[in-house]
Amino acid sequence: MFINYEHNNHIYNVTVERREDQFFITYDNNEYTVIATELKPGQLFIQLGDRVIKSVISQGDENKFVFIDGSIFKVKRIELTGRKKTEKREGDLHSPISGTIVSCKVKEGSPVKKDDIILIIEAMKMEYLIRAPYDGVIKKTYFKEKDQIEIGQLTAEIQKKEEKNGSH
Amino acid sequence: MFINYEHNNHIYNVTVERREDQFFITYDNNEYTVIATELKPGQLFIQLGDRVIKSVISQGDENKFVFIDGSIFKVKRIELTGRKKTEKREGDLHSPISGTIVSCKVKEGSPVKKDDIILIIEAMKMEYLIRAPYDGVIKKTYFKEKDQIEIGQLTAEIQKKEEKNGSH
Amino acid sequence: MFKKVLIANRGEIAVRIIKACQEMGIRTVAVYSEVDKNAPHVQIADESINLGDPTPSESYLNIAKIIENATKVHAEAIHPGYGFLAENPDFAKACADTGITFIGPTPEVIRLMGDKIEAKKTIAHADVPVIPGYHGIQQDLSTLLKEGKKIGFPLLVKATAGGGGKGMRIVHAESELEQSIESAKREAKSAFGNDSVFLEQYIDRPRHLEFQILADQHGHVIHLFERECSIQRRHQKIIEETPSPMMTPQLRETMGNAAVAAAKAVGYTNAGTIEFMVDGKQNFYFMEMNTRLQVEHPITEATTGIDLVKWQLRIASGMELTLKQKELTQRGHALECRIYAEDPSNGFLPSIGTLEKVDLPNGPNIRNDTGVETNFHVSPYYDPMLAKLTVNTENREESINKMIWALSHYVVLGVTTNISFLRKVLDHPEFRKGNITTHFIEDYFHNWLVTKEGLPLDALIALAVYDALHTQRQEVVRYKEADPHSPWQHVGRWRMGV
Amino acid sequence: MFKKVLIANRGEIAVRIIKACQEMGIRTVAVYSEVDKNAPHVQIADESINLGDPTPSESYLNIAKIIENATKVHAEAIHPGYGFLAENPDFAKACADTGITFIGPTPEVIRLMGDKIEAKKTIAHADVPVIPGYHGIQQDLSTLLKEGKKIGFPLLVKATAGGGGKGMRIVHAESELEQSIESAKREAKSAFGNDSVFLEQYIDRPRHLEFQILADQHGHVIHLFERECSIQRRHQKIIEETPSPMMTPQLRETMGNAAVAAAKAVGYTNAGTIEFMVDGKQNFYFMEMNTRLQVEHPITEATTGIDLVKWQLRIASGMELTLKQKELTQRGHALECRIYAEDPSNGFLPSIGTLEKVDLPNGPNIRNDTGVETNFHVSPYYDPMLAKLTVNTENREESINKMIWALSHYVVLGVTTNISFLRKVLDHPEFRKGNITTHFIEDYFHNWLVTKEGLPLDALIALAVYDALHTQRQEVVRYKEADPHSPWQHVGRWRMGV
Prior knowledge:
Chain A is built from no helices and 15 strands. Chain A is mainly beta.
């Protein structure tokens, strides 16, 4: 079985084959043979030679969380079907949290300077500021005061000052 | 759905019908309507009017264990198909535990007096004595020293002294 | 003693109070909003009441609804926990007006201490040192700007009704003053419904120390020693300990006496906390009084052997405080970490989602206070604190080691938490030396990232094993659904070598 | 300090020792028999070694196998826990011979204290009171019968090598003497491989009190106060507490000094316990010394704030005992219950089976020591103790109430346990008054039955709900197996009103 895991924008290619409680895993041209038991749902007890690997894994809607050695990693299992990852753009105007817009400081057409506040989102009684990543002009705003916003939604678009044409 | 539960040699007849999270239960000519959620496997949260019933139930091979209000009850769900329960006989000669026979004090044909030791079973480093329930003669022994015995197995049969014929 | 108490709160503190009541033979009533209907505090209570809409103002902050329900179920007293209505004098008053005992001080004391300006004036009269600043009623921008310039920089802008770092700004230069005042006022308005602020001289890199108070209705007031709460992020505590590594027996006595004097000066009753700021020369200044149970009360319980919640209940029911100051002992060392659903490598942004797996560390002298469990959904409606982890041992070094062990065995999957971050803070050489101030996180963990490196090999192996174990089953099921008449022969690719 | 320690034990005590080591940065090696391969102590250890056959003599009691494995993995020390090899001088000797540190006293001291006759003689020389009796080498029946008659009745027959009530008989009349001696000898032979017994004057309804000792290799010996362990069934402790409700400060000092004198008299090192019998007039007699960690050590840890296992490790590694007798404080009250898989309404017969569900109570000052979990199989190979539950509070009454609360929330399904029984004992008026002796269970709970009444209505409702929720699924499955081509139409009767 071929599997691709994504973690922090990095992709790991792994193969695994199972024979009863033995697992044959290859990664980065090395093969590892382990014996493993799932003690409780998601709780793995893995023997790799003399060494013991203890891990707890949960399967969410999109991500897996892996607890190992006191650390937790958020990993996505992906299909490599030619799709390219969307790159994170300079000066993120996406909401970092789900919440409510408490203040929108700009209108479409307003000029903004780098680090000017564009809007203020309140979530769990704290405020989060969306600031302009560069000097420019507000091309579009997607939210107004009291609107609900979800994590990852785009708040506004800015036409960068130095640029000749509209898109960025 | 009709269900019969057995607990301590007593049988309870219950009916239950379900409509989504509502349950209609009849017992002893009373009907109870409850709303119930299974929070975690076996963990029930039941509302009966103003009252809350919290219970944890496990399903073993034969028995259910019911935890309620700090007490635990061992219950069997049974089918009433005309079979009669085997009655517990006077002076139980069945082994109360699984273990090893460390000493057999009698032979077939030996006379015994009430409370004489018939055999000694060791389990978990403790000794359990099987004693004669009445005066009589050993009719049959089923185990010898070093034999393994399982809980509930018959250890011996005794012909009761006062009786005219062999069976008891 | 009360026969029935309603707990007007949720999460770990509601659970903790319910357990204390039940041990004392008191029947408990939980309240909950729709999203909390299966929450642990509801499961454990003897009765529970649905308050409806999860918006706090419609449920946990709704005075009328809570009082009405308390009356209906014949609760004799209400414990407010911390946060929500705990420091709301109107709520305490509404309880009193309905003949329900509010477990806390009188409405008058809450109101006085809730007004940070009046609080400082009153406490200063009891000869307890306070910080120079502007605490005036004039709240227009020009007055505040003028007074701010008079105090000098750095200075602090803080909501009069505030608490927990909300409506608070540090101003390093005159040019920032105006925007900071406006933003603090806006936040204060939203959080407390009151945009009044005060200004104060800002002490650079102070420690935050506080003293626990217990006072009965018969004039007995004691303190239960200090808690050091300097480790903060976004002005909110995340690690607390007692005793403080900077404390001396003399200073402890001086500050303890000041705390008792402050409590006596306002006629305080029940459990409360006097917060002090301490500078590098061991000068201390009264900051504020929290008129309620503190989040970090477990470390005081661990080192003194006293159950603060049970004493709150006894004091509220009119019993006498039989603990004597002289007989109290502070033994060993205790440490608390607050477990938050937040991302320390991204500005401590709260993280929302379902807790797919919760498995807590346990062992001698490890205390878990938690109001969540596996499958609990962390919603944006409430504070993202999931749980508290407290340890106590013979000394500070052992406590740090025990806490690191416990955090390394703390499993919360499904949301991002601060657990790895807490471990790193505890293991920092300056933390281990006890060199901590309220700026510790900013000074040493400014641009901290959980993982600079990638996935370790062991994680990949575990993932591969997990997927090999679980893919098979899923595929078999998928197959069955598709074609029930030939159940096995097509599954080959997924059924690895059985 | 050691870098790697092997724990030659299983269950809750192995788990507890492993955690202490890990907090101190010591790598741990667990050993296990086949049936324990997924047991909690194996899961938590850093390494583990399969000892094979579950029969104790082939695994946990197999000295050669354990020493060989310890050498192979380069363990510097072995912690024996309690039971199994903990008081076996040959094991301690074998460790020493291999250059492995045995975490406990010297083989000579273990051997001396293991011989109950020699132990009493030695201790009596240190002016510690002992009970009159026959401790001779002559073990023929006629000598024992003669000596027994000389001591008078009631008297006690006890295995010289014994412990935990095994090989022990109380003889109330001359007519019972012969059979009791024979039976005690047989049990002793089986349990300890040695059928030697001694006879002693039997004190009616004594209390069982013991003192915890810590002694380092540099001549420092301290005691950590008493534990009252009078509540016993089949001569095995089930409830322990400290301080004892009968203790006075004077008696505590006298007995504590006697315990320290006894430990010094034999050159004791590491943790140990001096057991005393106390009669109704506060006379106390040395019974025996346990040369190891005690099952009930958590109550001492709770009231003194000391971690006994960590001190065992420090002492064994040669460190000095820095705790001073004068600085030790005994604070509050602690209570321990032993949770057994046994049936109290049927002679405390052990109960075997799979733990279908384990859910432990938790809250402030509730300590769970457990070596089992959901799906663990309780086998007949080992002691049926599943776990220990310890609480501590400000005083005895609060501890009892907290313990009753905790027991009421203690879920162990799948085997019969003594949990309900423990609750009843704690709630008995004479227990609450502190009027307890080693005969308490016999006196007040002789023919105790869990349930005289039938199933409560709530249990029937819960069962009906459970079956309604679960039958549907089961029946659908059953149907599918029978006829895969028409999956739904026949199921009607079981699919209730969905």
